[in-house]
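Its record is set out here:
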Amino acid sequence: MTISRSFRFSPRQNPDFAWAWATRFLVQLGNALGTLYLLYFLRDKVRYAQHFPGHKAEDGLLILILCYTAATVLTVVVGGVISDRNGRRKPSVIVSGYVMAGAALLLAAWPTWDGALVAAIVLGLGFGVYLSVDQALITQVLPTARDRAKDLGIINIANSAPQVLGPALAAPIVTYLGGYSTLYVVVAAVTILGSVLVTRIRAVA
């Protein structure tokens, strides 16, 4: 059996798993598009170095990362606990996706340092809930116990592939299709699509 064949699965036989993969891919793609170009957003759009003489855009990025990480840590456990108690996964995943999309729209409409700070916190709050609850949702739609390792590997492609595709897709959007505002509108649209498609999963509440 070749490696490529070992990573195949049938969307027809396992539709919930296929939809879970698609939603994870889209939300992670939106997250990659939104975060991997933040340095250039701060440098070219916000003009961080001009607003804070003696500091570079990299310094602003570090602050945003710290705010984003703190907000993620704040909600990653709380979101999981709430989902476990009410026994529902999809509403938390959907709402967290909308929150992340809202953060992207903030960057599109409010391209300032203050806007970036608020957006980083909002994005972290949404992503923290998403990380914990979506992972729980995926474990409930894995096709068979025998192939758990393989299936989690397939899911991991939905995590890693957007990190490669994100910069490749973001570059032409920023350069030729309207700049950073367009980029973050696209981020919001992709993230919302990933959230909406969660409703197609039938086996999980």
